[in-house]
């Protein structure tokens, strides 16, 4: 799905306040600290709770493999002044034959409510529609997750109905609101500030 430019871990995305970069082994403790919070894990379909060190290492390995193969792009969110500190994640993965990839994200609780997830998501979506041939991005949100529902609406996602999502980390199926974002309908154009090039 993603072209060669994203297949190496030197790849970075810059936004106004953030660097988005590949997860790496040294991120394991911080990732575990953030997603170990049940308020983060339990809103997702795939993050186990309780979350063990081996879960963080397994996630980092599989994310790096998928990034390297171009089958998806998982980027940790870091503050620009602390690029070593992962505070969240945005990802697109699993593109199907009909050209739809699945969107996911989380942010560490101390950082909620400052627009970081929206800022990171805009940059990833701009990139995806800019450099891949994806037609659609799909996503599922628990109905009791107002913050995530609001983010999807701000980004231009449309609700396509209620559905059931297989959520092994939650012990079975969960009810979700389903969303899709079609190429050309994203509320992202120039939403992420482009790098500035200073003249000599
Ligand atoms: C969902 C999550 C990523 C949001 O991160 P965040 O950086 O705080 O999100 P943002 O600040 O970019 O945007 C949140 C928006 O929701 C709004 N919001 C927050 N609580 C809300 C509520 N109870 N009702 C309606 N809107 C709400 C905020 O005001 C903000 O909108 P605004 O910028 O228009 O004011 C974070 O809470 C999280 O990690 N949750 C657990 C994991 C999760 O839910 N992942 C997504 C699974 S689908």
Structure description:
The chain is of the alpha+beta class. It has a domain at 4-137: Gcn5-related N-acetyltransferase (GNAT) (Aminopeptidase). It is 28% helix and 28% strand. The protein has five helices and eight strands, in the order ββαααβββαβαββ. The chain has helices at residues 28-35, 38-41, 53-69, 116-131, 146-155; strands at residues 12-14, 18-21, 72-79, 88-93, 100-107, 136-141, 158-167, 172-182. Strands 1-2-3-4-5-6-8-7 form an eight-stranded mixed β-sheet, with helices on both faces. A hairpin with an 8-residue loop joins strand 3 (72-79) and strand 4. The radius of gyration is 16 Å and the shape is globular. The chain starts with 11 loop residues before the first strand and ends in an 18-residue tail after the last strand. The structure holds coenzyme A. The site of coenzyme A has 21 residues, from strand 5, helix 4 and helix 5.
Lateral strand order in the biggest sheet: 1-2-3-4-5-6-8-7
Integer average pLDDT = 92
Strand content: 25-35%
Q: Give the count of helical stretches.
A: 5
**What's the CATH superfamily of the domain at 4-137, by name?**
Gcn5-related N-acetyltransferase (GNAT)
What compounds are bound to the protein?
coenzyme A
The tally of beta strands, per DSSP, is 8
Q: What Rg do the Cα atoms give?
A: 16 Å
Report low-confidence residues grouped into runs of 5 or more: 190-200
């Amino acid at each position: 799905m993603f072209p060669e430019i994203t297949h190496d871990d030197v790849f970075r995305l810059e936004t106004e306040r953030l660097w988005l970069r590949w997860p790496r082994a040294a991120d394991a403790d911080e990732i575990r600290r953030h997603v170990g919070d049940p308020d983060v894990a339990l809103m997702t379909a795939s993050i186990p709770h309780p979350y063990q060190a081996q879960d963080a290492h397994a996630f980092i390995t599989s994310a790096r493999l998928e990034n390297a193969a171009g089958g998806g792009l998982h980027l940790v969110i870091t503050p620009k002044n602390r690029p070593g500190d992962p505070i969240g994640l945005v990802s697109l993965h699993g593109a199907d034959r009909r050209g739809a990839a699945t969107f996911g994200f989380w942010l560490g609780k101390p950082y909620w409510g400052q627009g970081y997830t929206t800022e990171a998501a805009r940059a990833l979506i701009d990139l995806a529609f800019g450099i891949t041939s994806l037609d659609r991005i799909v996503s599922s949100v628990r109905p009791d997750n107002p913050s995530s529902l609001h983010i999807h609406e701000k980004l231009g996602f449309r609700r396509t109905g209620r559905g059931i999502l297989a959520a092994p980390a939650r012990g079975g199926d969960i009810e979700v609101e389903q969303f899709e974002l079609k190429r050309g309908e994203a509320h992202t154009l120039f939403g992420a500030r482009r790098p500035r090039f200073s003249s000599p």
